[in-house]
Amino acid sequence: MEAGTVTRPEPVARPEVVMHGPRSAPRGWLSWLTTTDHKKIAILYLFATFLFFILGGVEALIMRLQLSQPNNTLVDPETYNGLVTMHGTTMVFLFVVPVLAGFGNYLVPLMIGARDMAFPKLNALSFWLLLFGGIAFYASVFFEPPQAGWTMYPPLSDDAFTGGGGVDAWIFLIHLTGISSIAGAINFIATIHNMRARGMGWGRMPLFIWTILVYSYLLVAALPSVAAGVTMLLTDRHFGTGFFDPSSGGDPLLWQHLFWFFGHPEVYIMVLPVFGMISEILPVFARKPIFGYKAIAASTVAIAFLGLLVWAHHMFATPTPTIVLAFFMLSSFTIAVPTGIKIFNWLATLWRGQIVMKTPLYFAAALPALFTIGGISGVMLAIFPVDWYLHDTYFVVAHFHYVLFGGSVFGLFGGLYYWFPKMSGRMMSEFLGKLSFWLMFVGFNTTFLVQHSMGLSGMPRRIYDYDEALGVSVYNLISTIGAFILGIGVLVTVVNVLWSLKNGRRAGNDPWQGNTLEWFTTSPPPPNNFDVVPRIRSVEPMKDIRREVAAASVPAETVAQPVAPRSL
Amino acid sequence: MPQCRPFGTTGTKWSRFGAQRYDHAALPTGMPRRLFFVALGAVVLGILIAAPSALADAFTPESGGSQNANDIDTLYKITFYIGIVIFLLVWGVLIWSLVKYRARRDGRADQIRGNTPLEVGWTIGAAGILVVLTVVTFLYLDDIDNPPGSGPNGLSAAAGQFASIDQPDPPTDGGPILRIRVNGQQYIWRFDYPGDEQLFSYNKMVVPTDTTVVLEIEASDVIHSWWIPQFGPKADAVPGHVNESWFKVPAGKEGIYKGQCAELCGPNHADMRAEVQAMTPADFEQWADHKRAQIAAAGEALARERKQREQEAQQ
Question: Taking the model in full, what pTM does it have?
Answer without folding.
Answer: 0.89
